[in-house]
Design a protein that fits this description.
globular; alpha+beta; 7-stranded antiparallel beta sheet; 269 residues; homodimer; 2 domains; 17% helix
């Protein structure tokens, strides 16, 4: 079994910032605008969906009804900019390396700071990301940096109000031994998508292998590997885009919000 | 290790009702008005909180912010009476053996049928109950019928809108060996309160041992037993009562709503 070179999280000694706090400070200062995979390992990463308040109930209920894809870890109320439960001292307007701005369902620009766009009626949803369990998988000898895709499917979500559409999944190809370990490990993270929703044939979910959202086009699963599928936190963004919300802000792809929640504690906030 | 006499759930053979469907039918016909502990074992049981729609967003968000105590398994929209996701064919107005009616925070009566009280603006929340994992505990040799209390505490919940107040917990006294098994078993039910929130001294949570909500008054934990504490689904009812909602309906104590969800599948609905 391969040993991971990924270190344990630096949880702080009370005399300086933790790895999560330091990462957010770099983003806030505008010094880091890249992807967050591999950053502040051991801390829970989230997708963010920021919407006008009139959508908040339907969106929260959509997330409840599709909680494997949309595990809400914190809701930041209208008029507030700090994720005070999962990341005290944070500022949602600056502490993500890159944001995507959607107007009427069209991605119009990516920006590293959204203070100029912020409105007092914005409600923000922080939704647990599967990136969170990468470190635990690596520690258990399951590789996370290759043979990995984000895919649209024709599997419907449970619709609520204007929010509806297909489930988005993360597909990983693993050896049979790794596949079993991956089910065991990810089962320990029920609030970050948890166990796979499917193992085996991508056609069962109606996966769009020709046009992955992340990763190269796929022909077929190699005979010696097993495909595993997790519900993905791109799902809530996809349905919000499809609903043509007049103004919506999300993290840019793979640019997560790093919380102070420690992944191995498996806790809800 | 004691073997449990509790049978596996009867999951149906497609030719007749399952144990869950049969139990709901008895309640609907008015033939069963008692407590549901031990009924339709293997099926997820829920607490119900029915509120006017104007409270729905704040209550749903309260549940998200206190999800260890308030794991929402289904929200039944205004104008609907069927829990179509967790119990297709059910009727929330008749399929619970006994209901408690609260007006302005006062429990005014208990009734076996609420069709005459139903309003089109009622939204119902089904919240996973710890009764759900009793069968799994019994199968593992952990007794569930004695040394068990429901207690108020001075541990605050995370408030939302008008909803705030102390956490309500389930306390169980177990042998040290049973305590370890109970942590293992209940960890497998993250959407029915999951693992204990505390082990040991009741004073740490500020438990009101003199006035249990269920069970006799308690003096001290016996030296040879370990006290374990789970967040309890009485919590959301307690905060809704404290908020003095003008009209609220819940299941009567220990009279749960029996869903078709199979507890051992650990799934969200």
């Amino acid at each position: 079994m391969r040993r991971s070179a990924i270190p344990l999280p630096y949880l702080g000694d009370g005399r300086g910032p933790t790895a999560a706090q330091a990462a957010r400070a770099e983003m806030r200062a505008g010094r880091f605008t890249g992807i967050t995979r591999g950053m502040a390992l051991g801390y829970v990463q989230c997708a963010m969906v920021t919407l006008p308040q009139r959508y908040a109930y339907d969106f929260l209920l959509f997330c409840q009804r599709n909680s494997r894809a949309c595990p809400v870890l914190e809701v930041v109320d209208a008029g507030e900019t700090e994720a005070k439960r999962s990341a005290p001292g944070s500022d949602l307007r600056t502490d993500i390396p890159m944001y995507s701005i959607y107007r009427d369902g069209e991605r119009v620009e990516d920006v590293p700071d959204i203070r100029h766009l912020w409105r007092d009626d914005f409600v923000s949803f922080l939704i647990g990301s599967g990136i969170t369990f990468d470190q635990a998988l690596e520690r258990a000898g399951v590789p996370t940096t290759r043979n990995r895709w984000v895919l649209n499917t024709s599997t419907p979500t449970d619709p609520t109000g204007v929010f509806k559409g297909g489930l988005v999944v993360t597909m990983r190809w693993l050896t049979p031994e790794q596949a079993v370990t991956a089910v065991q490990v990810t089962s320990r993270f029920p609030f970050n998508h948890g166990a796979p929703i499917h193992v085996g044939d991508p056609a069962v979910l109606g996966c769009d292998l020709a046009r992955p959202l992340i990763g190269p086009p796929v022909d077929r699963v190699p005979a010696d590997l097993t495909a595993l599928f997790w519900a993905c936190s791109v799902t809530p963004q996809a349905v919000a885009i499809a609903a043509k919300v007049d103004l919506m802000i999300t993290q840019a792809p793979a640019c997560g919000f790093i919380t102070d929640l420690e992944a191995d504690k498996i806790c809800t906030p």
